[in-house]
Amino acid sequence: MTADLFPDTLAARENLQPGAMLLRAFALDEAPALLAGVAGVIAMAPFRQMQTPGGQTMSVAMSSCGERGWVSDRRGYRYSPTDPATGAPWPAMPARLADLARRAAAEAGFPGFAPDACLINRYLPGCRMGLHQDRDEADLSQPIVSVSLGLPATFLFGGPTRGGRPLRLPLVHGDVVVWGGPARLHFHGVAPLAAGEHPATGGCRINLTFRRAT
Q: What predicted TM-score, i.e. pTM, was given to this entire model?
């Protein structure tokens, strides 16, 4: 047997587009600690399904941690320093989560990333995220770092306009996608989640999305 037959998945890096990189298994070893941190956040700020400005209920359940949390309601999309469900500040971002986001950003070519918001998304079977841009942040020079935990999903990564056929990227437990620079405002989403069972999360997928909101 040779090393070529069993490549080191921890070293797998895939350039998707200029400014966008897929880091295979980058968070795999730390996944238990990341999920423990998520559990602590959710105990203080439970998952909830928010409404879009148009009045539709989002299929993905969400929470946040850090100095800012992302919220959506009839008034629009925005970041808030407090959880609208409780009026209290969002839970602090666990150090292990923030450290992983910084290291992933640096690995993808964005050193110095200091996230102040982490969106925690829970996908159940059938849940999806339509193609959209992340443009509610004050400093669009900062990248987005997205961590996949639990059930596999198909990540859709398009271009700067909604038209065209996006890349369809299979993501599994521990994969991380980073995009910024020329790809910062590219459209992206998640195809409907297939049913399954994962030893780390049960019948769901957890997605951590780190941003610099302020």
A: 0.93
